[in-house]
Design brief:
Residues 39-62 are annotated as: Disordered. By secondary structure, the protein is mainly alpha-helical. The protein has helices spanning 3-22, 26-48, 51-55. The two termini are 28 Å apart.
């Protein structure tokens, strides 16, 4: 998931978060907020993974 996708997901989730809060369902809103925070925190780790980490070593190293 790239930076742009994470941002779009966060905006969508935050829009949903305000709609949930308007309905007074604060427990779900808190869980959604925690999930967004965790997703955003994980995004840089996913971005920093190299192709070597993802698909393994080049042929000559196998």
């Amino acid at each position: 998931m790239n930076d742009s996708q994470v941002r779009r997901l966060a905006v969508s989730a935050l829009t949903g978060l305000s709609q949930v809060e308007v309905r007074g369902v604060t427990t779900r809103a808190a869980r959604l907020d925690e999930a967004i925070t965790e997703l955003v925190d994980q995004a840089p780790e996913q971005q920093s993974a190299s192709a070597h980490d993802t698909i393994g070593p080049p042929e000559e190293e196998r």
